[in-house]
Write the structure tokens for this entry.
Amino acid sequence: MKADYHINIFFSVEDGGYIADIPDLQCCSAVGETPRQALAEVERAKVAWLAAAEAEGKPIPPPRYRPFIYQAEFAHAGKELAIHDGGDGYAPTKPKRKPKKDGNA
């Protein structure tokens, strides 16, 4: 199975349309009147982004972005949810526990 870049699509009131972006490709985004149009436009933008990076000899990042919902996994049934941050800044780190009043965590 070939890996591909994740695409976010959302409605923007400010822009009056749908925005599609590819988090792994800096500044690669597009606008459309419908989600399908935004997707088609960002696919064209992706092709142009990759071609320009290759022509300029710039590194092409591998697909790494994963939405938060897919980053969580259950270690074992009955255990707390484990959240992993690969150090790339995409996943929030697990919040630290607040100490109890007696000073123990």
